[in-house]
Amino acid sequence: MTVEKILTWFYACKTTDVPENGGVCVKYNDEQIALFHFTRRNEWYATQNECPHRQQMALSRGMIGSQNGEPKVACPFHKRTFSLITGECLSDDECSIKTYEVKIEDGNVFIAVEE
After folding, report:
1. Around 73, how many Cα atoms within 13 Å sit in the side-chain half-sphere?
2. What integer pLDDT is reported at residue 79 of this predicted model?
3. Start-to-end CA span in the chain (Å)
4. What is this structure's pTM?
């Protein structure tokens, strides 16, 4: 049996609202989503904002970079690193984070959430 995901795209912000090679926090209903503009790669990513290690809303303030060619974010408090593509913890196997699809249209950023 195949279960199809139902995605809702919501307007997050203007592309100019996100710093180059940095992130911002976007709120959708009760969810905090970390949105990143990885300018060096010309790519956009979104993840949950909560670091699962200590349940702090901090990932949007984390440092982005690459590990073996894979884009990642490091929690600013605990330095655990997570793949921006899969959400997998690259520091250990203890935890992972949720990721979201992102699209850009006419200078606007949209994020897909599962309903």
Report:
1. 34
2. 85
3. 19
4. 0.93
CATH superfamily entry for domain 16-114: Rieske [2Fe-2S] iron-sulphur domain (2.102.10.10)
Give the three-class secondary structure for 115: coil
Within 10 A of 102 (CB to CB), how many other CB atoms are there? 19
Report residues of the chain scoring pLDDT below 70. Answer: 1
44 burial (CB, 10 Å; 0-12 / 13-18 / 19+) is buried
Q: Which two tokens stand for residue 12?
A: 């997050």
Say which residue the tokens 């984070």 belong to: 97
pLDDT for position 4: 78
